[in-house]
Amino acid sequence: MNSTAIRQKLLFHFKINISKSYVCQIRRSLGWRTQRCKYCQLISHVNRRKRVDYALWALRTRETFLNVIFVDESSVEMSADGKIYFYKPTYGMQYIESRRQKPKHAYKVHVWAGISYRGLLHICIFNGIMDSVIYQHILRDNFLPFVNSVFPDGYRLYQDNDSKHCSKSTKAWMTDNHMIDNVMKTPASSPDLNPIENVWSSLKQYLQNVAKPRKRDELVNGIVDFWEGLSANQCGRYIDHIHRVIPHVILNEGGPTMF
């Protein structure tokens, strides 16, 4: 309940008329603090159980993920969001409002890639929606050459349970290309268990704070520059993060971990 609602209730029920600032002052004196609500993915009871089972399996087998390739896709868009900013009023100087220029029609691209302890795949940048056929083409042209070169001793593929990953067409294609036995069984609704999600977060921060693209080519070039700047050691640090997440999955009974 915010200060306005508290003030209105006091006025309606007790005829006490105080300001919102006084309500805030009293609330702070009682030890209450404000915090923004953080949103997380809704996880069903069935998927919670599967997440716990996966985390327990990883701990029981002392999973290292040394031969695992984590793949995923994401969307990247040129946009401007309203951020809170701080300024110090200076007398005698003109105050300039904080404004961020925003493209009239935000340009969006989709990206797909993968990371492992031995390095990263080439990033695929594309428009439109990825379906099973496009996914199979990416695996053929990008994934298989990578594993044949970098993982001649065997690998495992970590992907989410998206329909294009699990379709009959994709499973048949993977079977024909001797991949199906290398696909890990992963719990649904578990972006926190795929380290590449943190890579996407770093990519978007890089675009916002460093590249600052204003045009389509600048957006694509910014994505490529970030990706080419990643090393195998950096990929390893992203993957190491999963060992922090797994215990929290169990402690939260399969619920969101906020990682």
Quick overview of this protein structure:
This protein is of the alpha+beta class. The protein has helices at 3-14, 20-29, 45-60, 132-150, 163-166, 168-176, 196-211, 216-228, 232-240, 242-251, and strands spanning 68-77, 108-116, 119-120, 124-126, 156-158.
Radius of gyration: 24 Å
Element-by-element helix/strand order:
HHHEEEEHEHHHHHH
Mean pLDDT: 89
Strand content: 5-15%
Tell me the number of helical segments per DSSP (H or I, 4 or more residues long).
10
Indicate the percent of residues in helices.
40-55%
The second-level CATH architecture of the largest domain is 2-Layer Sandwich
GO molecular function, one term: nucleic acid binding
Domain Tc1-like transposase DDE: 68-219
Protein name: Tc1-like transposase DDE domain-containing protein
Structure, described:
46% of the residues lie in helices and 10% in strands. With 259 residues, the chain is α+β, with helices and mostly antiparallel strands. Helix 1 packs across helix 2, helix 3 (45-60) crosses helix 10 (242-251) and helix 4 (132-150) packs parallel to helix 6. The longest helix has 19 residues, at 132-150. The model is unreliable at 80-96 (pLDDT under 50). A hairpin with a 2-residue loop joins strand 2 and strand 3 (119-120). It is built from 10 helices and 5 strands; from the N terminus they run H-H-H-E-E-E-E-H-E-H-H-H-H-H-H. The chain is globular, with a radius of gyration of 24 Å. It has 2 domains: 1-35, no CATH class; 45-251, Nucleotidyltransferase, domain 5 (2-Layer Sandwich), CATH 3.30.420.
